[in-house]
Specification:
18 strands; 40% strand; globular
């Protein structure tokens, strides 16, 4: 009988039942893929992270991520949750852990302050695909419940990625963002054609100088109709905004706060930092708070 130390943590918030919930198993050594998939299905969060001991000398540990239905290569909010749980479990001081993921070894910074922690996730290499053709873009717009007139003409509809790709769709109105009623089956079918599971709809329509964007993220093809607060959408969004010269920056640095989860009452904030080289995004990091909802043991 193995006792798995398991947390449920809300990421990108300090308020329980807000932000984005993730499961974390902090002592996953020995678990088989099927067992991890079953645990993720049982916890039924959009992602559950599993922490393993290092498998060689070039990393401090291994981390894997499962939705209720499949394994995914990387996940922002589950990384924040996993590093927060590890910091609590091991009573860590401020440090940087090099964790092996499916997109390579990434440095995750743990910042200890006043007895609590914040987590900085360095994301994978930024990539952006060409803008979609008009026919594909129209199918996407229709499936999301949008009209062409809703689209922000400064924002090309294209895939951006730091390891787990998302389609970026900029729109004009926050009211429209919150009123969206996507056709999830159509989005899932479209995902097979474009080889991308996530659709991140965002707007600059903000009533706060501290919040640049509001967003919603839909990924029905991997069993997540709507993800509350998405690190692997807001991070690539920063690269996308720089790549397309949509925003200004100073001293080769662009920082902003993205807010998400308003419509589904799970508000959270992702702090995004983009380091720029030769006017292109070079390094993307996200920073977030977290809070424990519960800690338990699973015996298998």
């Amino acid at each position: 009988m193995k006792k798995l130390i398991t947390y449920q943590i809300d990421s990108f918030t300090k308020e329980k039942f807000k932000g984005n919930p993730a499961g974390v198993v902090v002592n996953a050594d020995g678990l088989k893929d099927y067992e991890m998939q079953q645990i993720a299905r049982e916890l039924n969060n959009s992602e559950t992270a599993f922490l393993f001991s290092p498998d060689d000398n070039d990393c401090d540990g291994v981390i894997r991520y499962f939705t209720p239905s499949i394994e995914v290569p990387i996940c922002g909010h589950a990384t924040i949750a996993a590093m927060y749980a590890k910091a609590l479990e091991d009573n860590l001081d401020s440090c940087v852990l090099k964790m092996k993921t499916k997109v390579g070894i990434l440095p995750f910074e743990i910042i200890k302050e006043n007895g609590d922690y914040q987590i900085v996730m360095t994301q994978g290499n930024f990539e952006v695909s060409p803008a979609f053709d008009d026919d594909t873009a129209k199918k996407m717009i229709d499936a999301l419940g949008l009209d062409n007139t809703d689209i922000d003409e400064n924002c090309p509809i294209q895939i951006a990625s730091t390891g787990h790709s998302k389609v970026m769709i900029g729109i004009k109105s926050r009211a429209k963002l919150n009123a969206l009623l996507p056709k999830y089956n159509d989005l899932a079918d479209l995902s097979k054609q474009i080889n991308c599971n996530g659709y991140f709809v965002f707007t600059f329509d903000s009533d706060s100088k501290d919040i640049l964007t509001y967003g919603r993220m839909f990924a029905p093809a991997i069993g997540i109709n709507e993800d509350p607060v998405t690190g692997n959408a807001n991070g690539p969004l920063g690269g996308y905004l720089i790549q397309n010269k949509i925003v200004d920056f100073k001293n080769n640095l662009f920082e902003f706060n993205g807010k998400q989860g308003e419509k589904i009452d799970r508000l959270g904030i992702v702090k995004v930092r983009v380091t720029i080289q030769n006017d292109k995004p070079n390094l993307i990091q996200i920073k977030g708070d977290a809070v424990v909802v519960f800690k338990t043991e699973i015996e298998i």
